[in-house]
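User: Some background: our group keeps a shared notebook of sequences we're curious about, and every so often someone picks one and asks for a predicted structure to add to the entry. Today it's my turn. The entry only has the sequence so far, pasted here. Could you supply the structure so I can complete it?
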Amino acid sequence: MILKPIFALAQIALLAQATEPSFSDIGVDEIQESATATVEGCNYFPSFKSAKVSKLQVLAWYREKAKLSDLPGAGVCLDKDFVCFVDCALVWAEANTESGKRWFLVQMARNPMHSEHRVQQMWHVYMVLDGDDGICHFAAPPKFRDIQKSISNFRFKSKPGWVRYASHINEVLWREHIGGPTPAL
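Assistant: Of course. Here's the predicted structure to add to the notebook entry:
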């Protein structure tokens, strides 16, 4: 009977849609809200405490997954088959501060599935103890070389053990705010 294979193909298509989000359904509003709060409530740079965001754009995002046991340096995992999912986004912002106009790059992240704590499932500034603090500021609009020098959590290439299975760079916004050619994700 031909209906079973067609039904199976429809199920596969639905599963693919569920695991590969488009730019519009990754939670752009939540990313923008959290990034705005990060810049405006910025305790990282005391002279920017009165920052008021005038423009903010999500430039790029990606989704990666890794089996914990496949990650270098992971050691012994309690559950060797546990898969970790991570969404990352790069946000560009322009803000007025006590020190004048400043530009910010905010690295955002979330663990959309299998996260113990609900707060990890929401978009938040991406900070790690052995990396940068997730937010960088500039006296002039940043260019790609500034991004390459300043951020370490948002990666244009996957680290060993990680598989990137969905990504997007908004090429129009990238050219408008960063300039130059759009890098590959």
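Suggested note for the entry: The first strand starts at residue 52 and ends at 67. The chain has five helices and six strands.
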